[in-house]
Design goal:
76% helix
Length: 127
């Protein structure tokens, strides 16, 4: 099972448990032990945090950096690596050059994919 599918399944499970517990809290709040109600509310808070984390992971959204900022950071890193290679080509071993070239290739692919997946407003258009 792919990582993304596992995360979606986990998200669905968390949401279902959250809804079920919320209903129970609403229906039986007057007859249950207050200690258990508080425990259930704490569990709900944890589930809400887990739901948000999974949602962000599935949409590739980092809570502190926007998709357009991520793309810009990639571009800057790519340019720095290109300049580094140009300025230090004579001082690097074949293995170092090869590793840098592979890194550059991966960054190019990532930038191309992000360019396709990010709309004009800087939000991801795909899951």
């Amino acid at each position: 099972m792919s990582d993304k599918k596992r995360k979606v399944d986990n998200l669905v499970n968390l949401v279902e448990n959250h809804i079920r517990t919320e209903r129970h809290l609403e229906q039986y709040s007057n007859i249950g032990d207050p200690k258990y109600r508080d425990m259930a509310r704490e569990k709900q808070n944890v589930r809400e945090e887990q739901i948000n984390v999974l949602k962000n992971q599935l949409t590739n959204e980092h809570p502190k950096i926007s998709p357009s900022e991520h793309l810009e950071n990639l571009k800057e890193s790519y340019e720095r690596n290109t300049n580094y290679l140009q300025n230090n080509m004579g001082n690097l071993s074949y293995e170092q050059i090869s590793n840098m070239a592979t890194k550059q290739k991966n960054q190019r692919r990532q930038m191309e994919q992000l360019s396709k997946d990010v709309d004009e407003s800087g939000k991801y258009t795909k899951l």
